[in-house]
Amino acid sequence: KMLQVPFRATLLLLLLVVWSVAQEQSQAKGCVCGYPGIPGDPGHNGTPGRDGRDGIGGEKGDRGPIGLKGNKGELGLPGPQGPKGGFGNIGYRGDRGKGDAPVISKSAFCVGLTALTKLPPANAPIRFDRVIYNQQNHYNLQTGRFTCSVAGAYYFTYHITVFSRNVKVVLMKNGAKIIHTMDNYQSSEDQAAGGAVLHLEVGDKVWLQVAGGELYNGLFADEDDDTTFSGFLIFAA
After folding, report:
1. Which end of the chain is more exposed for a tag (fewer CB within 10 A), N or C?
2. Spans of biased composition, class Gly residues (predicted)?
């Protein structure tokens, strides 16, 4: 009996609720609709939606203005060597340089016999007394010797007019015999000659002398005939 009391109360309550709903529905069907009311205020913005899909590509736009100059880039790697170019135009002649002029060594002489010194004595330097050239005074007229003042290569030569006696002469260097020249007299004037290239050091002496005694000193000279002795520096050493 205790359980029947709550069950009956619950059933009555449920029936009461159903009846209340039925009453509201019947009232709604029987009412007359009025005019629309004033629109309400807009609601607040909702949260942004997600990004949509990419659209179809549009047409290419106009070229924009040139931008500002950018910073200088890093130096690139060297490129391959290009072909050889042609010859350019000849440049203008430069100014003359300044400096000391090169020193050119000079040494030369040419001397001859005269009627007073023809037929010179034997075994002694022939003292040629006619000066044709002796600008540097390297040939000594008093001793008949040439003295080297510039070391180098020299050329010595002699030309002899032979008359009345045989001729035998020798080219001497510091007392040593270098070359001999001999000619036998044949009852008329004859010619003899010789020459040599010598290397000389400063102070060396060179001369020409008769060898073989008085029978071989037929070196002749007059107004029409000459006997000469010459030498000059080829190049300094």
Report:
1. N
2. 82-91
Average pLDDT over residues 211-236: 95
Q: 14 in helix, strand or coil?
A: helix
CB burial string 189-212: b at 16+ within 10 A, e below = ebebebeeebebeeebbbbbbbbb
Fold of the CATH domain 108-236: Jelly Rolls (2.60.120)
**What's the distance, CA 223 to chain centroid?**
62
d(CA 109, CA 15): 168
Check residue 223 and report its DSSP letter. Answer: S
Distance CA(195)–CA(180), nearest Å, equals 10
Longest dimension (CA), the chain: 202
Contact 237, 151 (CB under 8 A): yes
Across all residues in the chain, what is the average pLDDT? 87
Closest CA to 196 of 212, 210, 176, 213: 176
- The string of pLDDT tens digits covering residues 190-203 is 999 999 999 999 99
SS3 (DSSP) at 23? helix
Residues whose CB is less than 8 angstroms from the CB of residue 111 and which lie 6 or more positions away in sequence, other chains included = 128, 129, 130, 131, 132, 134, 139, 141, 228, 229, 230
* Extents of the domains making up the chain: 108-236
